[in-house]
Every structure is written in structure tokens, then in C-alpha cells.
Amino acid sequence: MRWWRNPDVLLIDLRYALRRLRNQPGFAIVACLSLAVGIGSATAGFGVLYAVMVRDLPVHDPERLAVVSAQNTGFQYSMSYPAYVHLRDRSTTLDGLIAFRPQTLNVKAGPATERITGMLVTGNYFDVLGVRMALGSAITPEDDRVPGAGGARGLVAVVSHGYWVKRLHASPGAIGQSIRINGRPATIIGVAPPRFNGTRVGSLPDVYVPMMFVRVVFDRESALTNPRDNWLRIIARVKPDVPRPQAQAQMTTVFRQWNHDVVLPLATTDAARQRAQNGVILLTSGASGLLELGNTVMPTLAGLMGLVGLILLIACANVASLVVARAERSQRETAIARALGATGGRLLLQNLIEGGTIAATAVALGVVLAVWMRSLLVQLLPAGPEIDVTLDSNVFAATLFAGASIALMLGGLSAWQGARAGLVRALKGNDLAARLWVRKGLIVGQLALSLVVLLAAGSFVRTLHQLRQVDPGFERQQVLIASADTSGYSPEQRKAFYGRLLAEVRAIPGVVSAATSGDEPLAVNTGWNIWVRRGESPPHLAGASVSFVSKDYFRTMGIALLRGRDFDEGDGNDRVIVNENLVRAYLGSEDPIGHRITGNGNTSFEIIGVVKDSASIGLRDLDQHMMYVPGGQGVLHVRAAVPPATLTSAVEAVVHRLDADVPVYNVRTIEQQLERTLLREQTFARLSVAFALVALVLSAVGLYGVIANAVSRRTKEMGIRLALGAEPWRVVRMIISEAGVLIAIGIAIGAPSGFALGRTLQGLLFGVQPADAATAAIAIGALSAVAFASAWIPARRAARVDPLVALRSE
Questions:
Q1: Which are the contacts of 270, defined by CB distance < 8 A and separation ≥ 6?
Q2: pTM of the entire predicted model
Q3: H-state helical runs in 94-205
Q4: Which of 453, 518, 456 lies closest to 484 in space, CA to CA?
Q5: Residue 663: helix, strand or coil by DSSP?
Q6: On the chain, which terminus has fewer CB atoms closer than 10 Å, C or N?
Q7: Beta bridge partner(s), residue 164
Q8: 195-224, pLDDT tens digit by residue?
């Protein structure tokens, strides 16, 4: 009976494979652990990539979803609520159109108020997506009719499954429970299914509320009525029989009619009129949801996949080298089996089963490693903590495919190596001097790949060091920041709250000064188009980042005031302080004090001061043109004469004394804030160093195996050399020289490859060139030292061979 038809044959070969591996525990352990590291790293990396770029939303027929965006003159933007309603009611090629907006909310579902991630959604959101509630009912159009009031059921909310389990203790009684959202009572009507995490990658909402709730969330009353207030994200469900280009063309026609009838009459400049006339609709795939992480995520994902791919290749090369050496040592055993009638197919089956056993063990260990690594890798991405990186069946399927491919590779390589020797020579033991070119080629590849990883690690470590040396332009040591969310307050209530807060915080012993701003340090995210006039020339369009700050902000942050004065209590919103970069770029040698800048629509601002340049959106870009406008609220800055961290409890107590329902969050020192902004760089540095160490170990093991195997084959030769009077050090030098050739070839191949990789990762580096000589010298030195050390051990063993024993060894 054919072996492939007889399951007993498979069982016998499986037992044989396990017995062989048990008799060679060193080989089995090294092979399994090497592959586990490679497979685990690759699985975790692919899991992050899949979660961000590929995974379909758990909704009905996700392939028919399309992200809707408006575009004019190459610029894409979101839409206003009136524009959404117009498209929803007049687009004939769609089965539905939804709008949503991620929004932080203050939610009180227990004794304390929490600041959570929420989502404003239109009433048709869950229906169009085809999402069924795990419990209760979904938000409907009837719940989304009256601004600030909802519908017949009043203000309602759907909570995520995770929030229901974590905060509501998975109680069925949560349906109908009243919670407070931004100070307003709302009724929980449903619990979303476990796998549904919204429609925006990078945002895991805990609570969904109707769009009409915007009146409670936003200060501006015009959010639902202003046709030029573009703040919504939109997804369409295209009809089954309608191609996406056809739907896009029909929606563009509707959109242009909207612009002509509504937006164009409101335009006040030729540029605005041109934008309104040239507007088009773009439909892109929405199966995976809305990805708004921008261009920042692509270099990061490329760097991540490059690193884990290199580690997997190094691990495979290392294990392949071990398998080849093992197969060469087993050639006599294989030859005997062939002489006794074993067919090539049966021997291939045995090798495949053995390779499959190793690969299966490595996959199991690798999955455990991947589960641990995924939370670390996701820190590389913006909004990383908000990305669901659960390793689902598709990721596991890819891992199993990789494991099966590796099993085939190992089994096929072992069978090929065992079959390449002549039967008679193998039985006589004369094939032990077979060429080592396969193993030498593998070890050269390992060394080259290891050098690439080392160069990447050196670049990432130096990038982190360079960023930590950057002077941010403000005080690093003696400032504490704390954010307080007063969502639900009216503008008057908010102004009064922060006035009392500053007064009480300034009275805390050890506080030197205190101020507020609208943004945390290094996190300014507001930008304006401004018009600046230089001399008698007409105003020209420019751009500036804008930060809203209170009196004493610059004193508290240690930002030097170079000219003019600081804000005082009497300044209105028509005064502005600018930084040196803005003056240099737009005003040149003109006296900036008293100069007027137009921005934020048609508001005219008078420059009353100039401050030193400081980092506003990160340590990588210190050339921002900054405008500081009075009135900032939300983030408290406290300059202390004592260690600032010791004031944390006192500051939190002041906030809760003023209003126990105002959550305090992100309480940290400026030094901690700086480190937080470098989280991606820190993670890349740590990961790359860890991967570099793994690569060094794998390469050392591989090179040691090649040299040790070569020495064992040449035992008789070494004995003859020593018997004829050769000095032991000459034997050591000969072997080390042979290893040096392999190392030199590996470096010659790896160095250009590493520099090429560095150029592709240029966007992740700072203050470091891809071909940086210092980084290259350290990487090459580290690899050479480890490689020569791994070759020195078998070389020393060869120099100590007893000539009589060596001559009798064959």
C-alpha cells in the first residue's frame, strides 16, 4: 500500500521524527526558539498592519462602504452638517449615508466622572452599517431630531461592549439606566456588539450619542447650521448594482449644485469662489473604516515590517544552516535507509514531518510571543492605544501559512542535502569533506541581515538621543501640567471656573506662578490662514499655528518675552503675541509691535509682544510660526519652587473642590511630557536594540555552527598539522582567517543594504544620516566582535586536538 494512503505510516514517521528531535535536544531547542522569535515578531507586526490597514469592519457587507470626502484644487476636507443632509437626501446611487465625529465626553456612570472617547453619530448610523445591538436597541432617526434634546426618548446613548463590561459590570439592567454626559442626563438604550469598535481607525468609542447632542458638546451653536463649518466624517453605502465611479459622479453633481446654491453666495474672495466651483466628491474604500492617521503611519508601518521581516529572515537562515549541518551529519544514516529500500518520497515525508514538528512548535511559541509584543508595537503609531490589535483568525491564518512554508523549506532542504551525496561514498564515510558552500552562503546572509538590523538600531538610538538634546525653548524641570475637562459648561461658567482655579492654585505653597492654555506643550493642533502686510505691499496669505493662553503663560513656561508686553486681564481677543519665526518670515526688519494681522475669518489682531521660539508641535520641528491669543483654557500650567510632582495631589484637590464632576487627567511634569512625545522613538529604539541583540545571537550561533562543523570535519587534518610541528596559534589563525572571510563578505553585502534601508526610513530619523559613519563603525564593530568571538571557540578547540587521537578519528 502506498505510504500516502496508509495513516499508520504517518504515525510511524511522526514517532520517528519526535525520537530524533528528543535525541538531539540542542538542535531542537535552538531551532524552535530561533523560529519562534522570528514568527512571533512577524505575527505581531503583521497584526498591527492588518488592524490599521486591512481588517474589515464587522458590519453587513463592508465592501459596499465608501469613505466620502470633498476635494478642490487637490485638497481634501470633511463636510458640514447641512452638506451631509443635502447629499443624504439627494444621492440616488446610495443605500444610505452616515455622518460621525469622534469626541471626548465627560461621563458619570458611577460615583466619579470619567473623560472617555465618545462618538457623535447620525440617527441612521447603526442601521446603514447593519450593526445589531448585543443588548437593547440602537439609536434611530427618531432619536436624532431635536438639537440638544434628541427625540421622543430624550437624550439617549449606546455604550460599547467593553464599557458595558468594564464600567456597568455586564449587567442586563444597564438598559434604561440614566448616566450623565457632559452634565446632562442620558438614557442607555443599547449595548454594541463585542467586535464593533466604531468606523474610525484609531478611535475606540465607549459611548455613542446622537448627532443632535452636539449642542451639549460644542460651544458654537452653528455646528448644525453653518454650511462652511466642515467638521463631519461621512461614509456611504453604495447600492449593490452601482459601480463606485458612477456613485462618485452622481454625488459630485449633487455636491456642485449645493456649492452653487449655498456655498458660492457666501464666498467673499475669488479663491473661496473658485474652491466652491471646483469642488468634487471622492469615494474611497470604506471596508476597513476611516483611516485618518495620515502619512505619519506609513513610514512607521514600513519600518516596523522591515525590522520584523529581517528578524524572520535571519531566524530562517539560522535554522536552515542548522538543518543543513544536521543533514550532512546524517548522510550515512540516510544512505543506509536508501540501501534498504526506502524511497525518495518516504524520506521526503520523514523530513517534512520533522520540519513540520519544529515549525508547529515554533508557531505555538511565536503566537504567545506575538500576544505579548502587540501592545508594545502599537505604541509606535499615533493613537496607538485606541487601535484594536486583537489577533483574529486572519492573522492566525497568515501565521499558520508562514509556519507551513517554513516546514516545507526545512523538510525540503534536509531531504535535498541528504540526497546529494553518492550512496557508496556515504556508506564508506568518504563524503564528510563535502562542500560547505550552502552553509557558508547562509551564514553570510545572516551576517549581512544582522548588520542591517544593527545599523537600523544604531540610527534609532541616535535619533532618540538627538531629540533628547533638543532645547524646546521652555522650562523642562520645574513645571507641572494638568488637564481639566469642563465640557458642558457655558462660556461664562468656564471662564469663571478657570479664574477661580488659577487663584486657588497660585495660593498653594510652593507655587511660583500658574497659567492656562488650550493645548498641552508640544501638542498645538490649531492652524490658521493669516494675511500679513509688509510695508506698502498688498496683504499676502500665510499660515501660523495658534495657541490660546492666559496671562502669565510665558512666565510660567519660562519662554522669554523679547519685545513688547505680556497679556493682561483687559486684553480682548484682538491682541496677539507672536514668536521670532513669524516675525522673521513675514515681517522681516519691520517693527512688529503694533502691526496688525488678519486671521480666523476677518478678525484683525494687533501684535503686542514677541517671544522666543519654542517647540509647539513636537521636538522635530522648531520652525513653526506661532501666534498666541488670549483666552486659553483646558490645560493648567504650574511653575513650582519645589519638585513639581509633589503638587499633583494639591492641584487635583483644588479642581475637585471647585467641581467634583470635572475630571482631571494627564497630570505630569514637563519632563514627563517631553518623554511622552518621544514614545514612538523610544519604542523603535528599544525594539530595534532588542532585535539587534537577537540578530547577533542568531548570527553567532550560526557562525559557530559552521566553524565547529568545519573543524570537526578537518580533525584529521588538524592532527597532521600539529604532528608535523605546527604551532597551535597558527591553527587558530587559519580558522579565524577563514571565518574572517565570511564576516568580511557579510559586511560588504550588509553595509550598502543597511544604508539603502536607512534612506527609506529617513522620515523616522532625526539628526542622523542613513550613512552615518559613527553608527556604521559601531554596528560593524559589534558584529565583528561577536562573530570573531563565536569563531574563536572552535578554533581554540582545534588547536588543542591530540594528534594521535585525531589521526585515529577516521
A1: none
A2: 0.80
A3: 125-129, 161-167
A4: 518
A5: coil
A6: N
A7: none
A8: 898 998 877 899 999 999 887 777 666 889
